[in-house]
C-alpha cells in the first residue's frame, strides 16, 4: 500500500477514534452529571422531608390539630415543586361546613380556582362517600391577584389526603396551569410526609382517646350524677347516674334533664351564675322523685387561657344522710322521753312518800319503794346501754376473752330468767349438747348478750315457749364454733326489718318499740359488738310476723380444744386471755 | 384450552381487569390522574391507558390487585382500603379470595 494512503488511513482512523473517544467521554460525563443531579435532587427531597417533619413536630407539639399539618405542608411546597395554586379542604363535622383555602402563587384565572374547587369536591365526595356542593364551602382565597380576563383551566394537579386515625382530616390540592407536571416520582416525598405526620397525630389521638375512655369510665362509675355543659349551654357529657337520680331516659338530652328538674331547679341560671362567678357558688338541696339531692355547679377553666370552658353540675344523693339525721333526732327524742318518764315517776313517788310518810302503811311503803327501785334500775340499764354504745363507737369497749366452759354461763343465765318466764306463763327449754369443747369468750359480756336475747324473747312473746340451745357448729364435718340459739314463739320479725335490726337505730327503724314495750333498742347493737369482738357472728331468722324468731350467735372454740379437733379452724390462734376492742 | 374452563378463566380475567380499572379511575378522582396512573404503572404486569383503563394484565391478576392496593394505601392509607372494600362488594368472587393488604 502507498505510504501516503496508509498515513491518511491512520490519520482518519485516529481522528475517528479521537472523535468517538470525545463522544464516549462526553456521554460518561453527562451520565455522571445526571447521576449527581439525581443524587442532589434526592438529597434535597430528603432535606425537605426532614425540615417539614421537624416543623410539623415543633408546631403541633402535643396538640391533635390535623388542620395544622395541612397548613404546614401546603405552606411549604415552594421548596419542592412548581405550582400555580395550593389549596386545602378541611371538613369540620362539628360546624357542619367545609373550609376551603386557596393560595395563588402564579396568576391564574377565577375559572382556574373554580376548577380546583370542583376537583377537590369530587375527591372529597369520593373519599367520604357523601355528596358535597360548592355552596357547602366556606372559602378564602389569598396570594397573587387573579386574572379576570383569562379562562385557563387546571393543566395538572394532584391531591394529598390527610388521614387521622382512619378518618379523612382534609385534602391538599396542588395545581398548575402547565400540563403533565406531577408524577408519582416528584410527589412521592409529599405523600411520605403526609403519611408520617398523620401517623404521629393518629398515635397522639389514640393516646387521647384512651385517656378519654378511661376518664369516661371513671365518670360513668361515679356514685354521683354528673353532667357537663359548655359555655354555649350544650351538653358535653352526662353519666348514667344522672338518669337514675332524675328519673330520665338513659342518655338524656339537656332538655330531658332540665325537664326533670323543672319546678325545683333552674339549671340554666345556675350554670350561667357559675360561669360568671370567680369563686364557688353555693350548693342547693332539691327533692326529685322522693330523693333529696345536693346540687353543686362548678365552672371548668381552660388550663392555658384560664377562661371558662364550661360547667360541671354534680347531683349528690343525700337521701340516706337526711334519713339518718332524722333517725338521730328521733333517737335523741326517744332517749329523752325514756329517761324523763321514769324520773317523773320516781319524783312523784318520792313526793308522795315525803308528804304522806307518816300516814302510809308498811306494805304501801314497801310497794312504793320497790317501784322506785325497779324504775331507777331501768334508768340505770338505759344509761349503761348508752355508755356502752358510746364506748363501742369510740373503740373503747373492752371485751376480755378467755378460755372456759360455755355451758356454765348459759345455765346460770337461763336459771336467772326462769322466774320471769314462768311468771308470764311461758315454757322454757334449755338444751346443752354434751361434751362441748371449751369456748373462747368474755364471761361477763356473754351474760350481757344472753340477757338481751332472753329479755327480748320474753318481751315479744305472749304465749308459747322460749328455747335455748347450745351445740357444736360443724362445717365440712369438723367443729368450728359453738352455736347458741334463743328461739321464741313471739311476734316475729318482717324480712325487710331483719337487716337493720343490729344497727344503732335498728329498733327505731324496725318499729319494734311501737309494740308499747319500753327499750333503748340498743341491746342488739351492743350484743353484735361483743360477739364480733371475740370473733363470733350474730344473726336472726324469722319466718315473719307472728311466727316467732330465732337469734343465733357463735363462740369460737378455744385453742387447746381446737388442736384435738385436728385443725378444725385453720389459721385461728387464741391466746389464753386477750382484750379485744369492739 | 377451549370449553368451560377456558371461558371461566377469561371471565375471571375480565373481572380483574374491570375491578382494577374501577380502582384506578376512583384513585384518579381522589389523588389526581397523573399520580394515580403513574402509581398503577409501577405494578408489574399491568397495562394502563391514559384514561385509567387497565387494558391488559400479564401474570397473576390477584397478585397485581394486591400490589396496586398496597401502592395506593401508601398514598392515602385507610381511604384507599375503604374504596377497595366498597368496590369488592361488586366482585364477590374476587372478594372471597381475600387480599393481604386489605
From TrEMBL, chain A:
Q: Which UniProt keywords apply?
A: Coiled coil, Kinase, Membrane, Phosphoprotein, Transferase, Transmembrane, Transmembrane helix
Q: Respond yes or no to whether keyword Membrane is given for this record.
A: yes
Q: Which GO terms describe its molecular function?
A: histidine phosphotransfer kinase activity; phosphorelay sensor kinase activity
Where are the coiled-coil regions?
194-225
**Gene Ontology terms, cellular component aspect?**
plasma membrane
What stretches pass through the bilayer? Answer: 6-24
Listed name of the protein? histidine kinase
Q: Which Pfam families match?
A: HATPase_c, HisKA
What is this enzyme's EC?
Answer: 2.7.13.3
Residues of the Histidine kinase domain: 334-559
Q: Where is the PAS domain?
A: 211-247
Which reaction equation describes what this protein catalyses?
ATP + protein L-histidine = ADP + protein N-phospho-L-histidine
Q: Which domain of life is it from?
A: Bacteria
TrEMBL record, chain B:
Which superkingdom?
Bacteria
Listed name of the protein: Uncharacterized protein
Organism whose genome encodes this protein: Candidatus Curtissbacteria bacterium RIFOXYA1_FULL_41_14
